[in-house]
What we know:
By secondary structure, the chain is of the alpha+beta class. It has a single domain, classed as Alpha-D-Glucose-1,6-Bisphosphate, Chain A, domain 4 (2-Layer Sandwich). The chain contains five helices and seven strands. A seven-stranded antiparallel beta sheet has the order 1-7-6-5-4-3-2. Strand 6 (118-129) and strand 7 (132-142) form a beta hairpin. Helix 1 crosses helix 4 (145-153). The longest helix is centred in the N-terminal third of the chain and has 23 residues, at 2-24. The chain is elongated. The model has no long low-confidence stretch (mean pLDDT 89).
Amino acid sequence: xxxxxxxxxxxxxxxxxAVAIYAATKPxxxxxxxxxxxxxxxxxxxxxxxxLGAQSSWSPFEKDPHMKxxxxxxxxxxxxxxxxDGNWEVGKGRIAITDSMPPxxxxxxxxxxxxxxxxNIVEFTLVPQGGGTLVTWAMHGPQPFxxxxxxxxxxxEKMVGDPFEEGLGKLKVLAER
Length: 177
């Protein structure tokens, strides 16, 4: 019995070490991006992104009807800030516009507190394409060791990318009206 427990413990140590070594080989940063062509000019789409209050009409992260929300700073553009505190699905965080170049680029600082701490950069780029606009929603930032371990077991690219696709779809519907 004692020998079996020792073998199980040794196997567990080897498995944990293997996961840790594999995680250590993963990149120190991540980037997730999704794009959609919206049949509208950039100057019609940009205000829906540049106004954090307007983002609630298309954001895929507005899933908690009881979420506490607070806007501060200017209504739109650089300095506009949105803070929220909701259920486990939306967490708690703050996003602030750090750079706004209408109608082509918007950069935001995203600081998550719950369900886990993270500090990332979010970017929207709008590029004229044919009769519409190619809108790209991207997020990038550091990938700490725990994030590397989590990415072994969960497809983080999909976990972030799928909501980005959903949000771009909603933005497309609003902008093409």
